[in-house]
Write a structure and sequence with these properties.
The structure is a single chain. The chain has 205 residues and is an alpha/beta fold. It has a single domain, classed as Rossmann fold (3-Layer(aba) Sandwich), CATH 3.40.50.360. The protein is 41% helix and 17% strand. It is built from 6 helices and 6 strands, in the order E-H-E-H-H-E-E-H-E-H-E-H. Strands 1, 2, 3, 4, 5 and 6 form a 6-stranded mixed β-sheet that branches. Strand 3 and strand 4 form a beta hairpin. Helix 1 packs across helix 6 and helix 3 crosses helix 4. The longest helix has 28 residues. The chain is globular and about 50 Å long. It starts with a strand and ends in a 15-residue tail after the last helix.
Length: 205
């Protein structure tokens, strides 16, 4: 089984990375393969709602989004990590995720998702909630931990001192592993839930 981790911080060795690395160590101990993609310091533009992805099978802007798409399709779980900026995720990460989820047409049902956030003090739960919405619109179960998935730290490396935060990351990785393995067994025995034809409605009619 494989987990894809997305680091939305512009600092490859920042506090978001410390949280994700704690999860990576736990995944390794559980026999789960991992790959981390650093996108917070990349030049990634936002979606312009052109709809070309439906024709091309990929985003019209050929950057990290299209590179990550096949990795996303192949993985069993996705972890998204972000620092908190103004009680929100890094704008580069949001642009990346919006285009990644919108431009990929493969079925994401029952891929396990988890978000991780890092901040000096506040805005963690708002950012955590923002990132989880990408999972819940896509039929992806959201893994939980012993607390909201967050670590605290201001300067580089300070999150390593957040003992409870790091424990939360380890618990999250263990719970995510259990959920992925349980879903794999369920798919083998019962298959995926039957889907209805999507009903598209508009609030003006």
């Amino acid at each position: 089984m494989k987990v894809l981790l997305i680091n939305g911080s512009p600092r490859p060795k920042g506090n978001t990375s410390i949280a994700l690395q704690e999860m990576e160590k736990t995944f390794a101990a559980e026999g789960i393969e991992t790959e981390t993609i650093q996108i917070g310091n990349k030049d990634i533009r936002g979606c312009i709602a052109c709809g070309r992805c439906a024709e091309l099978g990929k985003c019209v802007f050929n950057d990290m989004v299209n590179e990550a798409a096949p990795k996303f399709q192949e993985c069993d779980g996705l972890v998204i990590g972000s620092p908190v900026y103004y009680a929100s995720a890094n704008a580069t990460l949001v642009a990346f995720l919006t285009r990644l989820f919108y431009s990929t047409s493969f079925d994401k049902t029952m891929k396990v998702g988890a978000s991780v956030v890092a901040a000096r003090r506040g805005g963690l739960s708002a950012t955590f909630d923002e990132l989880n919405k990408f999972f819940t619109i896509s039929g992806m179960p959201v893994a939980s931990s012993q607390y909201w998935n967050s670590v605290h730290g201001r300067g580089p490396g300070e999150a390593a001192q957040d003992a409870e935060g790091l424990q939360t990351m380890r618990t999250l990785a263990k719970n995510m592993t259990f959920l992925m393995k349980s879903i794999a067994l369920g798919k083998e025995a019962y298959g995926l839930p039957e889907k209805e034809e999507h009903l598209w409605t508009h609030f003006i009619r």
